[in-house]
Amino acid sequence: MDKGIAAREILLLGAFEEARDVALKAGIEIIPLKGAALLELGIYKVGERGMSDADVLLRPKDLPRFEKILHGLRYQPMPNSADGWLRPSRNDAPPAILDLHTGLWHIKRTEELFNWGLEPGPGGLALNLADLFLHAAAHPLLHHGEVTPRSLEDCARIALHAPGDGEKFWAAVARKTEIYNMRPVIWPVIERLAAGPLAIPEAERRALAPRGLEKIKAAFFEKAAKKHSTALEYLLPVLHRPGFLLKYAVPEKHFMLRRYGAASLALYLLRPLRLLRSALRR
């Protein structure tokens, strides 16, 4: 166990738990994601993984009220971030940072997770293991255009944490992958896990494999998994959900205010040019 990593994780988990307790009293459900979820569920021990912030999922309608709660807990918007909130710590320790999400890129409607994807966890509601696996598999490719060793380790640990022989877990993963139309997105991760320590049942592996025109999309995700490129980082989310093209070009006012400090017409007109420059960056 790394004591520095452990101290950071304890601070961030404590910050998340405090925010969740206050939010619940106001009738707001917030769900841990990524490292916070993996630690709270015991998939990693404190000091094993490392976290820079605690990721939080909440319903879009609850965001304004939850931001007021964070103000009351002495958090402030993180500079140059559309989602981050930070609170200074004592004794020159790094600040507590909460990263707020009102949606996950691999699914279209956040409400589906709150209705069908949650189960009781050690400290409150948590994503079920199948949805947690899909988020861990899809997030690096859809947000960063790559597959990292840590993301593969996260996915492997989630699968190995499933009860029994994992047959029900993989069946749930295959079923939800079909519902979310995610076969091309997660196939590079499935192939790498199957070639390593995981025994994925053959029927579920076939169910997870891209078919027909999905194979064309899957080729782009595989290319990113082999080698990151900025162009693919911007292209992959649009391949998965074409509606992201408009969301990229014309973000919501809340995003513009947080990222640029204003939501003027000039900034909206410049937004596509900024994106193009970023996508072509080497």
What does this structure look like?
With 282 residues, the protein is α+β, with helices and mostly antiparallel strands. The chain has helices at residues 3-25, 34-40, 63-72, 110-116, 129-144, 149-161, 167-180, 183-194, 202-208, 214-226, 230-240, 244-249, 253-260, 265-279; strands spanning 30-33, 54-58, 76-77, 84-87, 96-101, 118-120, 125-127. A 5-stranded mixed beta sheet has the order 1-2-5-4-3. A two-stranded antiparallel sheet has the order 6-7. Strand 3 (76-77) and strand 4 (84-87) form a beta hairpin. The chain starts with a helix and ends with a helix. The model has no long low-confidence stretch (mean pLDDT 89).
Brief description of this entry?
This protein is an alpha+beta fold.
Number of helices: 14
Radius of gyration (Å): 19 Å
Write out the strand line-up for the largest beta sheet, numbering strands in chain order. 1-2-5-4-3
Mean pLDDT rating: 89
Helix content: 55-70%
Strand count, sense and barrel status of the largest sheet are: 5 strands, mixed
How much strand? 5-15%
Count of individual beta strands? 7
Low-confidence stretches: none
In oligomeric terms, what are we looking at?
Answer: single chain
Q: Structural class, from helix and strand content?
A: alpha+beta
End-to-end distance, in Å? Answer: 37 Å
